[in-house]
Design brief:
nine-stranded mixed sheet; hypothetical protein yedk fold; alpha+beta; 5 helices; about 220 residues
């Protein structure tokens, strides 16, 4: 999937939906891209907390080190065997829920790509399976796990977020590494549970999903 998602809900709505026990003073960003703040739900001592942390773990290749380049960001977990993830995916304390209402993919020619948003119609506010931890380079960070895309998303990207239904939250937060693997390699949620919203907004416009920018009078769905 691409590195852009949004949450079009208030903090109060998210706190209620995810049964958050303690909510710090956070604000909802209009969008989240790698390196920018996003909201996550974590469990600590039996309590669920809503936190604002930055998207993307530190990533620095040997080539980057040799060239004197600073660490970059990686916010998508596609390969669980990557050494970057091996130590955290097995430990439930590093798991989180990422509230999400829309994820985007680009469409169109280079230099004029626009935003195509996807949302789940069954659970408009849904949880993306995530990992989180404190890092020396960037402080608290998170990343989201991806999987093979369904038929609706695939023409734009062959990957999409691992989205969790409410009944799956506890298994994700407390399950074994086998459960993590099963979530990533299961069948994606079906296309008929999603809505595709095509916009005229340029990819780097910073504009959130909003009905008035959609092409045509109705959202496109398959």
């Amino acid at each position: 999937m691409s590195r852009l998602f949004a949450v079009t809900r208030t903090v109060e709505e998210m706190a209620k939906h995810f049964a958050v026990d303690v909510s710090s003073s956070v604000s909802v960003p209009s969008e989240t891209v790698e390196g920018s703040p996003g909201l996550i739900v974590v469990e600590k001592d039996g309590l669920r907390l809503l936190k604002s942390v930055s998207w993307g773990f530190s990533r620095q290749t040997r080539e980057m080190q040799l060239n004197g380049e600073p660490p970059g960001r990686i916010g998508l977990v596609a390969d669980l065997t990557n050494p970057l993830w091996v130590r955290i995916v097995v430990d439930p304390r590093y798991r989180c829920l990422i509230p999400i209402t829309h994820f985007a993919n680009p469409d169109g020619p280079k230099g004029r790509k626009t935003r195509v948003w996807f949302s789940n119609t069954k659970e408009p506010l849904i949880a993306w399976a995530g990992f989180c931890r404190n890092t020396l380079e960037f402080g608290p960070v998170f990343a989201g796990m991806t999987m093979t895309a369904n038929e609706l998303v695939r023409p734009f990207n062959d990957r999409m977020p691992v989205l969790l239904k409410k009944a799956e939250w506890d298994l994700w937060l407390h399950g074994s590494i086998k459960d993590v693997i099963a979530f990533q390699f299961r069948e994606p949620l079906p296309s008929d549970e999603f809505e595709m919203l095509q916009t005229r907004d340029l990819w780097r416009s910073g504009l959130p999903p909003r009905q008035k920018s959609f092409l045509g009078s109705k959202a496109m769905s398959i």
